[in-house]
Write a structure and sequence with these properties.
Helix content is about 30%, strand content about 35%. The chain has about 120 residues and is an alpha+beta fold. Strands 1-2-3-4 form a four-stranded antiparallel β-sheet, covered by helices on one side.
Length: about 120
C-alpha cells in the first residue's frame, strides 16, 4: 500500500498527569504514516486525487496545541481520528514522542495503528 509520511512534526501541548506537567505546554513530536492509494494522483497530477497533507497538518496543529490530555496515548488517538476523517486514508500509524518524559533518555514514545472501520 502507498503512504504519505509526515516526519518530525514538532508541536507544544499540555500533556501529562503530574501538576507540573499541567502548567505549561511541553514539546511533543509526531511521525505520521498515512496509508492510501496514491495511484490516481500519480496519473493525474491533481491535488484533488490525493490526501491534502497541508490541510491535514493544519487540523492536527489546531487540535494538538489546544488539547490538554493526560496521556500521550490519548493524544495519539486524537491525531489518528483526525487522519481517518479523510476516507481516502485507509490506515494511519501515529508515533508521539515526549522528549521530557523521563530523565536520562531522549524521549518516551507511543505508536498506534488505526484503520478505517469495516462495515
Amino acid at each position: 500500500m502507498d503512504k504519505i509520511i509526515i516526519r518530525d512534526l514538532a508541536l507544544r501541548a499540555i500533556i501529562g498527569t503530574f501538576p507540573e506537567e499541567r502548567r505549561e505546554k511541553q514539546d511533543v513530536i509526531f511521525n505520521i504514516e498515512l496509508f492510501c492509494d496514491l495511484a490516481p494522483a500519480g496519473k493525474s497530477d491533481r491535488l484533488d486525487d490525493t490526501v491534502d497533507y497541508k490541510t491535514l497538518k493544519k487540523n492536527i496543529i489546531a487540535k494538538v496545541e489546544s488539547s490538554d490530555f493526560f496521556l500521550i496515548e490519548r493524544l495519539a488517538q486524537s491525531v489518528a481520528d483526525i487522519c481517518l476523517a479523510d476516507k481516502r486514508i485507509l490506515k494511519v500509524k501515529v508515533m508521539v514522542d515526549k522528549p521530557a518524559a523521563l530523565r536520562f533518555c531522549r524521549s518516551v514514545a507511543v505508536e498506534i495503528e488505526r484503520e478505517q472501520p469495516v462495515w
